[in-house]
Design goal:
Blueprint: H1 3-14, H2 26-36, H3 41-54, H4 58-63, H5 66-73, H6 80-96, H7 104-108, H8 115-126, H9 135-145, H10 157-167, H11 172-185, H12 204-208, E1 224-235, E2 238-243, E3 254-255, E4 258-259, H13 261-267, E5 274-276, E6 280-283, E7 287-297, E8 316-319, H14 321-326, H15 331-342
Parallel strand pairs: 1-7
Antiparallel strand pairs: 1-2, 1-4, 2-3, 2-8, 5-7, 6-7
Helix pairs in contact: 1-11, 2-3, 2-8, 8-11, 9-11
The protein binds a DNA duplex through helix 2, helix 3, helix 6, helix 8 and helix 9.
Length: 345
DNA sequence: AACTCGGGGTT
DNA sequence: AACCCAGAGTT
């Protein structure tokens, strides 16, 4: 039995059940792969179920509004993925008559499909031998072959893709998924379970007892802390929310106005009804927000606040709790809303 | 090549 | 607290 035989036979007996493993429909595989980018399987599953129920086909997704797609995506993170998925559906309708191209170069032109996702769709949906190299696969390969390339660097990718192709045999979709499953269940980042690994006989790092020295990866800088006051402006039971700018962090999502300390010092003395809520902390990959929410009650337009209440309704407005529920509001602002609820507001 | 872009699970 | 996750796009 060679490497692929052992790997795939282990996979057939140990693979987890996932909704997208019951189909080879390219649209279904595409949606799952986009959601799974930098996101763990158990986190994705409920989002995937809801998404496929609402948008069962490329046509259905292409017809939808971006707002509705973002609303289903809220809480999943990396919201550009949702925008690209939506754009991609319209692109596939217009450029390919609603059918997925079976060609690698054509797939790569679809927004949001990069080297990994193209390989995943080609192999899983179409059975084409193509490398699908994600973080799991790089870790497995680096241990198998003592690969010293930094897995965080783009220039390392070709070496990993070559190794995959040298091992690939049988059904490419099964093989690629088996490699990822091995990385997720056995060849884990810390404390890998080498004694039960079906391919430990092929693993050079296991042979030398250096498994935990792989993969090689440069460290990340710590998130930078930013502090803001959050203006939670209440007018007769509704709350002021704004659509964030189209670029940058949490682009296009809805939230409360954030102001720095210096601006707060100008506004704070002029406010009558205010109430400081419990601090909210939220960590992004490279930033850490420490938020101090301030509940402010106003009757009419409050000129002392640095807010323009006369913007178009699609850019900002007073929202009832029910309306807030339907808007795409990222987790950090949901945390603020939670403090509001806890405070009995 | 480096930076940006979320949120949550694990250890 | 550190690390990682079925990565891609921009600069």
């Amino acid at each position: 039995m060679d490497f692929a035989d052992r790997l795939c036979s282990w996979f057939s007996e140990n693979m987890r059940d996932m909704p997208w493993r019951h189909t080879r429909d390219p649209y279904s595989i595409w949606v799952s792969e986009i959601m799974l980018q930098q996101t763990q399987v158990d986190t994705v599953i409920p989002y995937y179920e809801r998404f496929m129920k609402r948008f069962p086909s490329v046509e259905a997704l292409a017809r939808a509004s971006l707002e509705e797609v973002l609303a289903l995506w809220q809480g999943l993170g990396y919201y550009k993925r949702a925008e690209n998925l939506h754009r991609g559906a319209r692109y596939i309708m217009e450029q390919h008559g609603g059918h997925f191209p079976v060609d690698p170069a054509a797939l790569r032109k679809i927004p949001g499909i990069g080297a990994y996702t193209a390989g995943a769709v080609l192999s899983i949906a179409f059975g084409i031998p193509a490398p699908a190299v994600d973080g799991n696969v790089m870790r497995v390969l680096s241990r198998l072959f003592l690969m010293e390339q930094d897995v965080g660097q783009a220039k390392s990718r070709p070496a990993f893709e070559e190794k995959v192709m040298s091992l690939l045999k049988g059904d490419p979709g099964v093989f690629n998924q088996a490699m990822m499953e091995l990385g997720a269940l056995v060849c884990t980042p810390r404390k890998p379970d080498c004694p039960v690994c079906p391919v430990n006989g092929f693993c050079q790092a296991y042979k030398r007892n250096t498994v935990e020295q792989y993969p090689v990866k440069a460290g990340r800088p710590k998130p930078v802390t930013e502090r803001y006051r959050v203006l939670v402006i209440c007018r007769s039971g509704s709350y002021w929310m704004e659509k964030r700018p189209g670029e940058g962090l949490l682009a296009g999502l809805w939230g409360f106005p954030l102001i720095g300390e210096e601006q707060w010092r100008l506004v704070e003395p002029m406010l009558e009804k205010k109430r400081i809520l419990k601090r909210v902390c939220h960590v992004f990959t490279h930033r850490r927000w420490e938020l101090e929410p301030v509940l402010i009650e106003v009757s009419e337009s409050c000129g002392t606040l640095p807010i323009d209440f006369s913007v178009p309704a699609d850019l900002g407005g007073f929202q009832t709790p029910e309306q807030m529920q339907r808007l795409p509001v990222p987790t950090v602002f949901r945390k603020v809303i939670r403090q509001l609820d806890d405070a009995g507001a």
